[in-house]
Amino acid sequence: MLEPINISMAELNLSTLTPMLIAIGGALLILIIDLFKDGLHKSLYVMLTLLILIIDLGAVMGLDVNQRGFFDLMLIDGISILSQALILFTSMLFIPLALTSKRFHEYSYPEYFALFLFMIAGFQFMVSSDNLILIFVGLETASLALYTLIAMHNRPSSYEAAVKYFTMGALAAGFFVMGSAIIYATTGSVELYKIAEVLQNRMNETGLMITIIGGALVLLVAFGFKLSLFPFHTWGPDTYEGASAPLAGYMSIIPKLSATIVAMRIFGMYIDIGIEEIRIAILVLSVLTMTLSNIMALVQSDVKRMLAYSSISHAGFIMAAIALDTTKGNSGIFLYYILFMFTNLGAFSMLWISRHKNSIFHNRFDHPYEKFAGLVKVMPMGAVVMALFMLSLAGVPPFSVFWGKIYIMSSAVDAGYVWLALVMGFNSAISAYYYLKLIVYMFLKDPVNNDGTIYYNISKPLMTIIGLAVFATVTSVFYVQPLLEYITYMVGASGY
Amino acid sequence: MDNILSILIFFPALAGLLGFIVDKDSARAYGISVATIEFLLALWLWMIFDGSNGGMQFIEMVPLIADFGISYYLGVDGISLFIVVMATLMVLLGMIGLSIKKDIKNMIISLLFLEMTMVGVFLALDAIIFYLFWELSLVPMLYIIGAWGGPRRVYAAVKFFLYTFFGSLIMLVGMLFLAYLYHDITGVWSFAITDWYALVLPFKYQMWLFIAFFFGFAIKVPMFPFHTWLPYAHGQAPTIGSVILAAVLLKMGTYGFIRFSLPILPDASVEMITPIAILSLIMIVYTAMIAYSQKDMKQVIAYSSVSHMGIIMLGVFAMNAEGISGSIFLMLSHGVVSGALFMLVGVIYDRRHTKMMSEFGGLASVMPKYATIFGIMLMASVGLPLTIGFVGEFLVLLGFYKISPIMTLIAGSTIILGAVYMLSLYKQTFFGPVTNQENHKLKDLDKKEMMSLLPLVAIVVWLGVYPKPILEPIDNSVKHLVAFMDKKAKTQEAKDIIISTTLIREEK
Questions:
Q1: Between B136, B154, B180, which is nearest A397 by CB?
Q2: Closest by alpha carbon to A409, among A489, A310, A492, A335?
Q3: Do the beta carbons of residue B270 and residue B242 sit within 8 Å?
Q4: Would an 8 Å CB–CB cutoff place A467 in contact with chain B?
Q5: CB atoms closer than 10 angstroms to residue B398
Q6: For residues B231 and B454, is the Cβ–Cβ distance under 8 A?
Q7: Domain span at residue A345?
Q8: Measured between beta carbons, which residues in chain B are less than 8 angstroms from residue A425?
Q9: Taking CB atoms and an 8 Å limit, are A409 and B161 in contact across chains?
Q10: Is there a domain that residue A356 lies in?
Q11: Inter-axis angle of helices B153-186 and B127-136, to 10 degrees?
Q12: Cβ contact, residue pair B65, A480, below 8 Å
């Protein structure tokens, strides 16, 4: 006869779940409002979403560091709080981008906002657990919502993007489950800390190493898809191109951040117990990713595709920090993402405000370089702002991404990987070329077919967001210190 | 005024920002006023600078990213002081002589931002702040070359940017490695150059770091074989771009060697004397020959710039007070002279829209004032005694004589080779009958051009005859530096070569 299991509410520690519950509750609230009254304006939903995100952020900030809850499935450590806060903050910058002056299909559905909140809850689950099953559930919740969000942009290319992403995502999910199954078969657990214990004890058993490494590599492939690492990146540029510009910018940050955190937990564990092969595999993948996607970005003729490849290259840059597995490297990942977030979201927003309903500049691309030719003569402010973002992405000091770059390069040097720092340096030099290409078009060429309506889609809320991004990009040198202090504390507190 | 250095750096930037509001018809006057104030501030700095003190003065330090050892750290010594004064002077004169009409407001604003970065590079004592201004200086220059340059301007501008950017990223890795070593030894992070001076590093590390820094600086100088971007940039840049590029931006490279490589890595620097001297000699002789074969006046001066930068490099690696002081003085004189020469070429280009020597001839009779000033600058460039060019060149050769008499002899050929290409340029352009009818109606220098050139002529003669007011503070700081290197050097070989001798004051 089975013993009845008694669990007290205090032991469940449900407070660890509050942030996700707020997001899910908010999403349901939006759906209910829609049931009662049709045809409400998108601004209502945008503001509601924003408010829910703010409450959510408040709940996250109120969590205590290093606690477990809900049958020990939840793990609220420093990096979980940090990444949840970053996810929510980025979403708060993202959602007002819906308030364009022109109508777009997706924003007329309240479901868009509900799905958005479900997706955030998924990401929050993903980063605050070390249980492979819960991570998987979070990952799938978030991904399925995201596929739908992409498709809702309602153009043929968006459907293509969503289907492509979905197919690749499903494949990645398969790999993830496969890897988890192998791990479960070898260790009998799906909890990372228990897996680490068992692996450590069984490391020396003959013939087991191949299973351990095999399982890890299958997982690495899954994350390769999610983080769009070479050679699993092929879905990336098409999906970015098909998605609306702000969503593409968002996709280059938050889904990747969440996957990076999980990768940090899983592969950090492997490296910690001394399986060097995993470190080498990650290094090879990241070096290939940053170099090859950089080279592919060189030949793009569409700014959005260029930014897509550049985001892939940045992801490779960050992935290299995971292989270092030092506190400094892991802090560098957060610093990089935060600084990168402002700049990249800003750059994609600049594309967003220049979006026309019809392709008037090129019959294949929405944002060919020619569209921005001579922009400084037509819209001097717009050109300067875009140039700032490009310089920042290229890593020109003192703009934000530079600080993230040198911090990660410095942690590579500290960990004894000077060659890695050099590779990163070379890649920054290569990437400067394609960022510069846009600047050259904007500043040094004459306008083609430009009737002054390039910023067609502009509105006050969009300008505010871009203004914030510019401000954060330019003044980064003043807030890196407190940020770094907080990040290092949080990462150190969670033992990474 | 303890924070004069900050004011010097950020005044032009602030003025540049406010310049967006100034009406475009008044932009030039605004630019000149701002540049004048900036120049006066630089002169003020020179006034209150204590010339007998060889160390850093007017130090400012504010921690920026304390956990990572980055601070806003400025200071000035005899080495950087005069380069800053020269930079502000060249910006001012360049603006006075500005003949560009198109988008003049954008040009003025870019120049003011460029001025901030140039002054910042020479005053920064924190490696990251140095790097920040170093990289940032590329952006306005990219715009100046790319927007107002010749037909292939975009290619030239992008090449300039990428080449330098690539080199400096390798340098950045070197800086990060140095900071890591510093952290390893002392337990604190610091990017302060003065903190790094205290590091005594193993020889192997010194060599690697030297190479990393070498890439950053050598591309900027530009040393052979990394010089290929320069003639392009000069060929396509507008006059003002060439003036600033030759007078100030190239000096960042040689300044970097003096500020970073020599004191932080003395043993490696001594070890590398021969390879660098060979590269410098190639620069001197080879580019002088190329200069002779050019048909375009501006290219002649561009290649002569590279040739002279070779002598400066040689002086830096003479490792003694004469050589280093001489090369710093030569940096100043080269800044003044090549700046003036580029302005002079700009003058004729504005009138005829060509820079080909074959188009001219007999200009001396049509434009006597122009020919006189060109002649004086040409003599200074060749290094005729009693002109500014002679002092530095002489000191450099004197200093390097202690390292290798034979190499000094080859380097000395620069005076002959320089005379060959410069005089041939002068002969083709100014002497003989006026062959081209269009040249008959050329106007001589107008008031604006005279105003921008005469101060330079005065400086050329004044410092050629009496260099002491400048040479003495430079010499004090250099002796400080050399004595420090002598103390820090580990290998006996290095100690033998680094001798902190007294500078022979009276050369003439």
A1: B136
A2: A335
A3: no
A4: no
A5: 19
A6: no
A7: 10-493
A8: 169-170, 172-173
A9: no
A10: yes
A11: 170
A12: yes
Chain A CB contacts of B183 below 8 Å:
414
Pick out chain B residues at pLDDT < 50: 500, 502-508
What is the predicted pLDDT for the residue at A1? 61
- Which residue of chain A is at minimal alpha-carbon distance from B149? A444
Pair (B282, B411) in one structural domain: yes
CB B228 within 8 A of CB B182: no
Write phi, then psi, for B211 (nearest 5 degrees): -65, -40
| Distance of alpha carbon B105 from alpha carbon B174, whole angstroms | 38
Q: Are A199 and A165 in contact (CB under 8 A)?
A: no
Asked if A413 reaches chain B (Cβ–Cβ under 8 Å), the answer is: yes
pLDDT on residue B503: 44
Residues B314 and B372 in one domain: yes
- Asked if residue B485 is part of any domain, the answer here is no
Cβ neighbour number for residue B446 with a 10 Å cutoff: 11
Q: Which residues, at least 6 apart from A366, have a Cβ–Cβ distance to it below 8 Å?
A: A241, A302, A304, A351, A355, A356, A359
Domain containing residue B454? 272-465
Global pTM reads 0.91
Nearest to A440 among B66, B146, B165 (CB): B146
The pLDDT tens digits of the residues spanning A145-166 come to: 999 999 988 888 889 999 999 9
CB contact (8 A) between residue B143 and residue A443: yes
Is the same domain home to B154 and B10? yes
List phi, psi (to 5°) of A278.
Answer: -65, -40
Q: Answer yes or no: do A481 and B136 touch at CB < 8 A.
A: no
Q: Which of B135, B138, B180 sits opposite A410 (nearest CB)?
A: B180
User: How large is the average pLDDT for residues A227-240?
Assistant: 88
Query: What's the pLDDT score for residue B359?
Result: 83
B65, B142, B191: best to mutate for the A interface, most A CBs within 10 A: B65
* Cβ contact B170–A445 (<8 Å): no
Inter-chain residue contact A425 with B172, CB threshold 8 Å: yes
Question: Which residues of chain A neighbour B179 with C-beta distances below 8 Å?
Answer: 410
Predicted pLDDT at A453 = 64
Q: Does one domain contain both B118 and B229?
A: yes
The token pair at B180 is 């890591």
ipTM of the complex: 0.88
Q: Note whether residue B481 is domain-resident.
A: no
pLDDT digits (tens, 9 = 90+) for A164-220: 999 999 999 999 999 999 999 988 888 888 888 888 888 777 778 888 899 999 999
Which of B242, B259, B291 marks a domain boundary? B242
> Is the Cβ–Cβ distance between A435 and A356 less than 8 Å?
no
B208 and B286 belong to one structural domain:
no
Is residue B490 included in any domain, yes or no? no
Q: How confident is the prediction for chain A on average, in pLDDT? A: 88
Region of residue B36 (left: phi > 0; alpha: psi -120 to 50; beta: else): alpha
Contacting residues for B142 by C-beta, under 8 A, at least 6 apart: A436, A439, B157, B158, B160, B161
A446 at interface of B, judged by CB pairs closer than 8 A: no
In a domain, A5, yes or no: no
110-129 in chain B: CB under 8 A from chain A: 128
Most distant CA atoms of chain A, gap in Å: 83
Residues B343-366 have pLDDT tens digits of 999 988 888 888 888 888 888 888
The residues that bridge with B76 in the sheet, in sequence order, are: B57
Q: What is the nearest CA distance from A415 to chain B, expressed in angstroms? A: 10
Q: Would you say B79 and B328 are in contact if contact means Cβ atoms under 8 Å apart?
A: yes
Distance CA A124, CA A155 (A): 30
pLDDT score of A450: 56
On whether any CB of chain B is under 8 Å from the CB of A296, the answer is: no
Indicate whether B474 belongs to any domain: no
Selected for mutation to probe chain A from B9, B20, B24, B67 (highest A CB count within 10 Å) is B67
Instruction: Identify the closest residue of chain B to A439 by CA–CA distance.
Output: B143
Task: Using a CB–CB cutoff of 8 Å, tell me whether A279 touches chain B.
Answer: no
